[in-house]
Amino acid sequence: MSDGTTTIGRSASRRSARSAWVPWAYLAPALLLYGAFLLFPLVRAAQFSLFEWDGLGASTFVGFDNYVEILADQRLREAFWHALVLVFFYAVLPLVIGLLLASLLTRAQVRGLGFFRSVIFLPQVIAMVVVAVTWRQIYAPDGPLNGFLRMIGLGSLARPWLGDYVFTLPAVGLIGTWVCTGLVTVLLMAGMSRVPRELYEAARLDGSGPVREFFAITLPMVRGEITVALTLTIVAALKTFDLVYVTTSGGPGTSTTVPSYEIYRRAFELGEVGVATAVGVVLTLIVFAINGVVNMIGDRK
Amino acid sequence: MKVSPIERGANYVVLVAFALIVLGPVAVIVSLAFGPQSASVAREGGWFHPENFPEAWEIGRFGQYMLTSVVVAVVVVVISVLASILAGYALGTMRFRGATVMFYVFLLGIMVPTEAFIVPLYFDLRVVGLTNTVWGVAAPQIAMSIAFGTYWMRTYFRTSSRALIDAARLDGAGSMRILWQVLVPIGRPAILTLVLLTFMWTWNEFLIPLVMSPNGSVRTAPLGLAFFQGQYTQGTALLAAGAVMVALPVVLLYVFLQRHFIKGMIEGAVRE
């Protein structure tokens, strides 16, 4: 902190006292835009959520009724439950796969690792709408997935993957797994490459095998990366919108509706702006809480 | 580390298997895009139909939507990166009362879900007549990009050489000159990463243009694709061709500058 402030420190600080507005001048454009188009609407969201309003006419103050509605409305309860299911597919599954994959690849220095890294990261840069359109084709009744199942003699498993009350949510979730696994793996690989080799060599001398090595050394050393990976993917799961909008529109029935989709639907299709903003506020609080909890667990030594 | 040839072999199998799982869907959409549009076209022969692309471009009006996407992306990238450089410079190199609070205020913006603030923002911008304009579509994305960008540039400025700044100051350079003539030129890699990430997020964004332009006058490429899927239901070849065209600009940038994308998304995610 005291870098470079020995002799010129005093004069510099005197000058900065004279021009205390300088940093604020630099901050002003960012703060103005960010405040006007993100912070202010966020405060407005909290305000909107206390009113009943159809988006056009007059609004009525209803207190916390819109929040009570979230608990009472079965469709909204289902939406939050679906978001939780998606957390499994976006965060838990990629973490398990990523840990296995990254530890395998870090143990043995195989060729082509750089290329592999670029390939598995690719889904992260493809527009979600394009991903959704692609998987809709794959899941189509006469699409490649069912074709493949019939080819290998498992035709009885073939089904309209996005038109089935039981399988549509997992089918949508697996698209999330496809998107998130690369990011998680690359993060974990970066963490594991920083683990000192001597630790493993010492463990080998003690005669521990790959499984012991993984739980005793690798896992504790990449705790930070796991925290980051979980935060990113859980939040991505909770914010799922494009994917559901393009693949299923929440259907069949209500089987794949999610909070973000309900916000859009209620605010702009049903004219329930108050409930929509209340769901938004709850979603924000959940995201903050998860950030906090995951980081707290991650920081604990 | 030394491992047995069996393990090494198994690793290659795993490596190839996962690469195929990722590339499989990509191959599906690309092959559909070049495939025959209908059974009758297929009977006439030929499996390679690059003419799908100009046809999809025409029928799906992708020319118009891509142009809109470019305009929105340029507006968002230019304004948010400039504002982020200035704000990051203040938070990264200057000590002042309120600096820490301001840092957390910007950090908050990285976490806030779009769907939480976009609904009230739409209704407020409708009152002032900014919905269905490029500015209405760009503004919320500028705000979100500034939250990340300020965080990103602050990290860069904090690691930039203190001695360099002091030397420039002794030469009589003001804070503006130090920023633009010393720090920005040597910070080009960090700024390029920020430009690429902001461009990618803006290009791929779906919810904001959907909400902010309900009459479709400012329809970006991803929205154009979603509507094309809803309206054009004869065959999948043109839809697939449209999907490839929408993804292509960012994927091409990724192919050539993947280090920036991976580094940016990994380092940008690790907060203090």
Automatic annotation (TrEMBL), chain A:
It comes from the Bacteria. Its main location: membrane. The chain crosses the membrane at residues 21-43, 79-102, 114-135, 165-193, 214-238, 273-294. The keyword Transmembrane helix applies. Pfam families: BPD_transp_1. Residues 80-294 form the ABC transmembrane type-1 domain. InterPro entries: ABC_transporter_permease, MetI-like, MetI-like_sf. It is found in: Cell membrane. Keywords: Cell membrane, Membrane, Transmembrane, Transmembrane helix, Transport. It is a multi-pass membrane protein. The keyword GTP-binding does not apply. Belongs to the binding-protein-dependent transport system permease family. This is Carbohydrate ABC transporter permease. It comes from Agromyces lapidis. The lineage of its organism: Bacteria, Bacillati, Actinomycetota, Actinomycetes, Micrococcales.
TrEMBL record, chain B:
It is found in: Cell membrane. It is a multi-pass membrane protein. Keywords: Cell membrane, Membrane, Transmembrane, Transmembrane helix, Transport. It comes from Agromyces lapidis. The chain crosses the membrane at residues 12-34, 65-89, 101-123, 135-157, 178-203, 237-257. It comes from the Bacteria. This is Carbohydrate ABC transporter permease. Residues 66-257 form the ABC transmembrane type-1 domain. Belongs to the binding-protein-dependent transport system permease family. Its main location: membrane.
